[in-house]
Fold this sequence. Notes:
Order of helices and strands of chain B: HHEHHHEHEEEHEHEHHH
Number of helices of chain B: 11
Structural class of chain B: alpha/beta
Order of helices and strands of chain A: EHEHEHEHEHEHEHEEEHEEHEHEHH
Largest sheet of chain A: 7 strands, mixed
Strand content of chain B: 5-15%
Helix content of chain B: 40-55%
Oligomer: heterodimer
Shape of chain B: globular
Strand content of chain A: 15-25%
Strand order of the largest sheet of chain A: 3-2-4-5-7-6-12
Amino acid sequence: MSVTYIDAIREAQETLLREDPRVFLYGQDISNFGGAFKATKGLSDAFPNRVFDSPISEDAMIGLAVGAAIEGMRPIVEMQFADFSSIAFNQIVNQAATHFYRTGMPIPITVRLPSGGTPGSGPFHSQSMEGIYAQYPGLVVVTPATVSDAYHMLIDSVKLDDPVIYCEHKFLYRWLKSKAINGEHLPIGRARIARPGKHASVVTYSAMVHEAVRAADRLQADGWEIEVVDLRSVKPLDLDTVLASVARTGRLLAIGEAFPWGGVTAEVVAKVTEEGFHLLDAPPQRLNARDTPVPYHPKLWAAHRPTPESICDALRKLLSF
Amino acid sequence: MLRARILENKLSSLYKAGKIVGGVYLGRGQEAVSATLGASLIQGKDCFAPLIRDQAGRTAFGEPMIDCTRTYLGSVEGPMKGRDGNIHRGRPEMGMPAMISHLGAQVPLIAGMLFAKRLKGCLDGCVGATTVGDGATSTGAFHEGMNTAAVENLPMVVVVANNQFAYSTPNHRQFACADLVERAKGYGFGGHSVDGTDLLACAEVIGGAVRKAREGEGPQMVVAHLLRLSGHGEHDDGSYVPDSAKGGHYGRDCIEVAMRQLAEGGYATVDELMSWQEEAAEEVQKAVAQAQQEPVPDPYRENWTALSTRFPIPAP
Lengths: 321, 316
């Protein structure tokens, strides 16, 4: 018996619905159909009148969630694809994100963004929005990379009083399995060392954690020990753990699946340069997707995002500086 | 209506005297619509998302006048503590969310408040209301919110104040249907039209729409026809409004109409109307004086976090 990443997301929602009457689920096709990816399968049967199909109205979906939060509820909104949240951008960044600072009333909504690419999903079903939302004050942005984190971070997100953008990676949905959901977990705001090492630090999150670990495994044959830091939440960003890692290794490569202009990797490099310049033995590097829309064909897609090969190349360059 | 008009006249002079930063946005000409909506709602039970020209509705719903002067003057004692200004204020905990500038955004928000009331089992007999201008009816948020409220059959009342200009853009560049009320049917809302310069008509039509929603007849849309009697804000002289519109039927002042209606209908004597004006002027003076003597925000003492949550590591 094993638990997949998407099972964990479903389990977390079931736990939340069972334990907190303020929680309800809202999203396109999430009721009887169980959601486009089946993350809510069976939940409408188990919790009648707690799981609602929404019209195709992302702006209104988040607006409704904010209104419900004002009334004391804790809605979880499923965006069918992270890409579609661009329609809800105003409600997320202007309505939800500003609310606590403006009025003193927090908005405890959780927006699930099925993020990142899978083969053949093309430019409008593959985007990674975490960097865009992290730019805005008032939002917490989390990016679980493991089955246990998928479960615990969703539970923790809904328990937070502030709006949370929960970026779940579609590639991990059924690919990533675990024997069971681990009971122990770090709180949101703490990064984790996914793989210890001493020659270079890879700082990354979400699906790229697994690509980075693969690259590190390959370089081990050449005698390199690469440390991989899984940020877990990109905002707040656990700079302490990142700096401690860079202090051990002297080298930094920040990796993300999002587009290369700005974003999480740029922020990591900027912060480490600012606060840990003295720790660095080489210029910090970053590796992102290429600067084009996400391509459709699996061959193009595979070369668009960072791969173990491109990560190994970037690390060799960094190690030889 | 009177209290809102007198308050706004004072805000206008404070702005012109340089005592208010940012913008001042007045509801002149829209008070009859706004006040009748606010007065039809029950504070503590209903929810109301006022918009840019709703001072009269805010007052009628029960917003203390001091909230307005404190917000415009940036007092830390105000509901927004100087962090947001002018009409962007609210008290969400009392059923009055704070507006954002993005038009139409409060329509789905009110739908959400009603949706949550239903989930909590306390929807019966409640109404959620918001107002928008003719310009906001062109936005996606308005459309999505109307559609969502109708799908959920929520007791929502949306009042469209068609004041003929969205900032400077006239109706014919904003929508192509003959009358915005035609849209109500498409959304699945009950649709009503009213002369927004006529207090008694507003009381009947807007009050009636609120009653229908309260009694379970589903969402209601009221289109009120009127003319904005000032610029978009006090920085704008509204010179694009043609004289023909100003001299037309909707160019009349709803307050003058209302005072005549009240006197002629025996609702109030001229003396009573005069004394209401005096009382309102006194109340406005007091609210302005109080807000003016209160402290403004101190950047060195400001809590510069946008989150209520504390994390194990401090946010950089």
